[in-house]
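Below: protein 1.
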Amino acid sequence: MIKGLYEAHLPVSNLEKSIHFYCQLGLELDHIVDQHLAFLWIEKDKSWLGLWQSTNVNLDYHPSIRHIAFQVTLEGLKKSVSWLKAKGFEPREAFGFSPIEPFVLPHKEYAHAKIHFNDPDGNSLELICKIDNPKGMMERMYLSDWERKSNE
């Protein structure tokens, strides 16, 4: 029945500024509703992000209400820190890892490689990809260390 995630929503304080920010990430503006809601395609005709202009943006952060993870390729993720910085966005610390490069959170047969950053309103954003874990490693580490240990 369920085939994927169609939409997610975030509160923003300045709709125009936020539309510009997300378009710089590669999302495509589809339409604006009543000057306070914008829909941007994450993946054209598959999934989109709704941005709601609100005076109540400064909610306490919790990943269940102010977090979006964008799927990227592993090659894209490897370039993510320089890509974000070139656009004027700063990766941030997450899970105890400094934002010098993506890091890996392993599970049994697979792992997730990721980097975190924030939008202009402090909403938590993440670039993430699923990777194989053929050696069953369970230690969290930077992606470069993961790749070196995977190839040993």
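Below: protein 2.
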Amino acid sequence: MLKDRIEPIVKKFYDGVAKGTYYGRKCTECGAIEFPPHLMCNACGARQTEWVELSGHGKLLSFVAPGIQNDKPYLKAEGKYGYGAVQMDEGPIYTFVIFGAGKKRRDDINSRLKAGETIGVHPKPIQRNGWVELCFELD
């Protein structure tokens, strides 16, 4: 991805991630927050949104480990990982790469989630071909 060719909203998001700042867009009509940010509100369809800074912290809602055909060497180099839905402290939910657990911990993590335990996550941005990818790591 070439940063000079991306839309301003996407650029601000990735520039923020590179600096450790996490931006979303808040709908001025209904108050829903989009993270990663979008041009319009997915909750009510309004076109007016404004920048908000998010904590970057949240909780894990689900977790899956990649199968052998989906394993990514560039992620594996960063440590054990899987994929999970993260609910940010401010409310939005999105799926991210989750570090700190892999196939061996998958069943334990899912049992804890099913039992209602809160498993916190925090940002773990990684360098990837000239840009920074936002991933998360278990607390």
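The mean pLDDT is 91.
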